[in-house]
Amino acid sequence: MNYNLTKLSCRxxxxxxxxxxxxxxxxxxxxxxxxxxxxxxxxxxxxxxxxMDVTVITAEKTLQKVxxxxxxxxxxxxxxxxxxxFTSLDRILENVPGLFNIDNRFEGAIFGVxxxxxxxxxxxxxxxxxxxxxxxxxxxxxxxxxxxxxxAIDRIEVIRGPMSVIYGPGAFFGAINIITNxxxxxxxxxxxxxxxxxxxxxxxxxxxxxDVSLVFNAGYLNTKGPDIPHSRMTTQDWSEKYGTAFTSTxxxxxxxxxxFSLYGSYKGFYANFQYNENYREWYLFRPPNTSDxxxxxxxxxxxxxxxxxxxxxxxxxxxxxxxxxxxTRGNFGWLIxxxxxNISGDFNNKEDxxxxxxxxxxxxxxxxxxxxxxxxxxxxxxxxxxYPQFGNFFYRIGLQTPLKRSAAYCQADIxxxxxxxxxxxxxxxxxxxxxxxxxDIMSLTGNTAKYDPGKIDYIPRLSSIFYLHKNHxxxxxxxxxxxxxxxxxxxxxxxxxxxxxxxPEYISTLELNxxxxxxxxxxxxxxxxxxxxxxxxxxxxxxxxxxxxxVPSNKNSGELxxxxxxxxxxxxxxxxxxxxxSVTCQNTVNNRNEYSNIDVAYSPNFLAYxxxxxxxxxxxxxxxxxxxxxxxxxxxxxxxxxxDSSSYGARIADRTDGYLVIGANLRFNNxxxxxxxxxxxxxxxxxxxxxxxxxxxxxxxxxxxMPGYNRILQVAIGKEF
Length: 721
Prior knowledge:
By secondary structure, the protein is mainly beta.
């Protein structure tokens, strides 16, 4: 009998999956001999010293041991992904200590870190094989947009702390590098299906012979999305307000992703190509009137060509040219009037390239220098929108002249003694003046605005690493980072010349990080951090005397300060049992005078993460993972009239409560003495009906908050070659 999981009801799919789990448990004794596939329980046997010897490339663009990196580091390996059964990049990052997700169901997953969350997700730079990935203005976040299939991921390196010296603007709280080009990890195919009529497929071909290395990855996802009653997110009667009859998100939050990448290298030359398409459904500002909902399409390509060579033991170099091209098209599904034409939507296109040349020098045994030159040119970035529901607003906005940015950076690692390592680095960043435009399509009028920073930004970094003992390492870290205003913030001045010139944001971070291995198989990673965010770019409202009303304004305003601590404890009582508990406590304070008594929005004070895994034998593992995210407030808008109409100022939507989400995974390798594997994964097993706090894009119709993810069950089968 052939069961099509995509056509089964939710209850039937759960029954099929539970049956598969029971059958799988019965099959455990029937197999267990390794036939070439990597053994699941290898990670369980790693000692603290071996974990500290794990090398990552993201921190300084060259391989370094975790113990030698002047930053707090989290590494997620392929075995971690398999062990916990993570089914998407979002699910992986949600379980990284210090990160928390807010999904507004328009832009997708947006991750905050260490008490700070940005609506456009520009606080952590995202790299794929070291190549910067960038969002588009109407794109949402880059995390959601690229959606690399988990089967393609060899490892993920999360470097926490300012990384602007190495990577420039955008690396505010660090860098996330997704590695997909490791040919040593072999080839495989996988197919999975599960809740919400979800089907996933992935294929990987990896070839390595002599000087040639080739890796091809492809992935596909199609899901109908959740069926969530609108009453969970709003107190309003939508059918009355919007003239619609639907009562849930059924059939209106689907998603389809197509991805492939190709990497090749030969004698130092390498090329990396990545392409993805994303079709998704969402709500923006208001629910759609049309029966098929709001639609969004995205196409994005990245191509990089480079050459790396070790000229001698003291000098090596990596030079790379990258090119990116992207398009988005959105249809809001609004009928104008309610029973009229659907003429609402937007279109965004973007094109840029960058050149990055990095040299690695080691003139002396105890001195290592990383130096580089960087140039980026954004040739095109334009957004055209039609918002007839909002005063017949039809516009085109974007670059009139190319945006050009250049930088030079240098970082030196010095080890004057065996027990200490010092790091000193600096970056000089310069953005040339550029011009943006704003045009009203209907009136055929428009204006331009020029951005001229008129200065070179200086970005420093300092750190000390003390090797107190082979099992005790102390890191003292200081860094500064920068984020430049988007061209659309600059273009806002073209539509409103009274808008002030937007300047860059800055962050300064102090951190103490302690790594230790204790008796009894216990190791810990403890950090105390202090972040000072200054010159923040905010969307605000100011009182206009002439118009006697509040008007929107984009400006630099105020300062946020965060102090917090993170503790991760790993306990391995036996070789086949692994447990990990992480806790983050943080407090963010707004130093803007008019907001000093108002709790900072989108900043949970407490985060907790738990993982545990038990290996039955060398080919089978059962794991659980859990995360808790504390309560969060939404934005404060001083233009909103209070409930009693006595004053202005209120939250744009309700506060959301803290929530706990628990998942589990069961995996079998070498099924029936072959290289087949079976993976059964469940997330939000308790069925928690939690909410993400609303933001500007959805607060008007989701005053309670945006629904979190439903209980999801997925079954995957694959084969390694």
